[in-house]
Write a sequence for this structure.
């Protein structure tokens, strides 16, 4: 009798692996954790770049960037939706290798000074841009392309329209206003982070949380 029960259990387990495990495999196939925290205290996992799938995306200005595949697809939908409201966004900065981050750090230090760089640029190895999930956008208003940080921050009405649609496509605003002490960075209305889950993105947005706060409050 025990042998029969054991045999049935083995068969049921095999059926589960065949029919149900496919969903798990689909999730694992991506190879990355879309809620991965990368900040000044948390370094990019060493094997991340071996797992992430990047694609080339060319913006409306003819500039080509690398973005994580699913993030690129979601961004295209977000961009199309915003254009219906007369808001034009374009890619400005996406995936950066550690070497590229070092070059950026050195260049901006010379141009803007060390204090400024510490506010807006991550230490190489500790930047969200290494993930391929972080997207910095610039605005096109009339015939003008706006990408200067101060000018961007001044476009509050436009960014309110952008931010209102982020969660629908699995994005969150990564560096919130007044949360510098948590994120380690000043307010960046242009810095979007893809997390591949509209429901979680909506929770984070509705509760006004940073990614750090969400992971602390709702440990997964």
């Amino acid at each position: 009798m025990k042998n029969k029960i054991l045999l049935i259990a083995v068969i049921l387990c095999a059926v589960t692996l065949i029919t149900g495990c496919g969903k798990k495999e689909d999730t694992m196939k991506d190879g990355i954790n879309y809620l991965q925290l990368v900040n000044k205290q948390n370094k990019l996992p060493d094997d991340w770049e071996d797992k992430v799938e990047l694609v080339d995306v060319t913006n409306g200005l003819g500039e080509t960037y690398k973005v994580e595949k699913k993030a690129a697809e979601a961004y295209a939908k977000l961009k199309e939706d915003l254009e219906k409201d007369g808001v034009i966004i374009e890619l400005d900065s996406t995936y950066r290798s550690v070497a590229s981050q070092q070059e950026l750090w050195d260049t901006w230090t010379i141009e803007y000074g060390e204090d400024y760089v510490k506010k807006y640029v991550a230490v190489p190895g500790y930047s969200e841009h290494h993930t391929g999930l972080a997207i910095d956008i610039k605005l096109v208003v009339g015939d003008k392309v706006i990408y200067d940080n101060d000018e961007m921050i001044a476009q509050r009405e436009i960014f309110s329209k952008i931010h209102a649609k982020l969660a629908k496509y699995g994005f969150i605003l990564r560096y919130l206003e007044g949360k510098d002490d948590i994120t380690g960075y000043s307010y960046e209305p242009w810095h979007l982070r893809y997390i591949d889950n509209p429901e979680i993105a909506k929770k984070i947005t509705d509760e006004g949380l940073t990614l750090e706060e969400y992971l602390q409050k709702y440990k997964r």
In short: Strands lie at 54-58, 64-68, 88-93, 134-141, 144-146, 171-175, 188-194.
